[in-house]
Amino acid sequence: MHLIIDCTTTQNQLKHHGIGVYTKNVVKNIIRYPETKFSLLLFNAPSTLDETLKNRKENVEIIRIGKLRKSDYLNTLWFNTQYLPNIKKIKTEDSIYYCPYFWAGIPSITLPTVLMIHDMILPIFNIYSEGNKLKNFIKKQLYWIELNKSKKCKGIVVNSQCTKDDYLKYYPDYDPNKIKVVYLDAELEGTSPNWDEKLPHDYKQKGYYIYMGGTVYKNKNSKGVVDGYSNLLQKLPSKEKAPYLIIAGGNFVKDNQQATEFREYIKDKGLENKIILTGFYEDNQSQQLLSNSIAMLHLSLYEGFGISLVEGMKAGTAVIAHNGSCYPEVLNGAGILVDGKNEEEVGEAMLNVYQNREYRDEIVRKGLERAQQFSWEKTAAETYQFIKSFVTQ
């Protein structure tokens, strides 16, 4: 088998997002199979795979496809004029293409293709762009032009049963037996002596909850986290002595409209001294930020998998998540599920883990056990075997 893999999401603006992290870890583990020839498509630019590829075996080749570019509205044009010609040059009779990110382009008409679909968030919320209505309309057309090519894919990998079910709602004629559910993993990279440099000086006395939502997009329900925390404070005898809410991530301190409105929302509730926005944090600070928290909140209304939940369980904190989309499937009883739009329910869950140490410890124990069932090695192995199953077809 000759497996061609698009690795460009390990280089562009997606390299530290879920898609880029997925591509890096799957490729890192999948190229260990010596009986397969791998062609990895990369820009002429650094990649998060560089360290792995320094000592690559003879069956792994790098195909450079031009200068680094962002994933944007010109993806389809670029794919047809720059990307596809390179694929045609290297394809052989036993070639299969693995596409970890459909918006980069799906060559399912040119050669057998297996596609990874991470979620169906955009059509479910009808939000294809955070820009104006015209941008949303244009991006919507591009979305469906590309995703419709999935109908000709040999197989589709999804990260949860939830994503599989959602895909089949839009493409009910696609054979469900050709859709493989493969769970992902999370990576917590080391530790840092400065992990708490952006926390309040008295965080050890008061404690804190943590939210690492990533973005302020509508589906993330970041305001729901603030509302739940506000409800918690009303239940406690002293707001001054209450735990903090730490919101970690660079997107919350940006100057764009969504982030500005979010910060104003916090201020309007009078919580600017209790909710701490850390801004950007290093990857090696994640584990300690999580493990030292009372609980991690993730109330996103929709996710394809929810890597953040696995991070929380692996780090050894209690996980409070929205009871919807893939979250019940991922937690499987190892966390606390709430209605993320019900601030009373969220506040009550936060109170329970704060006041009842035994209850919290039991949630943490279950989370650590559940987290052991996820690994990137397993993700890569199941993906590889699924792709390989189409070689003889």
From TrEMBL:
Pfam families: Glycos_transf_1. It comes from the Bacteria. InterPro entries: Glyco_trans_1. Keywords: Transferase. GO terms for molecular function: glycosyltransferase activity. CDD domains: GT4_MtfB-like (cd03809). One of its GO terms (biological process) is lipopolysaccharide biosynthetic process. Residues 204-367 form the Glycosyl transferase family domain. This is Glycosyl transferase group 1. The lineage of its organism: Bacteria, Candidatus Dojkabacteria.
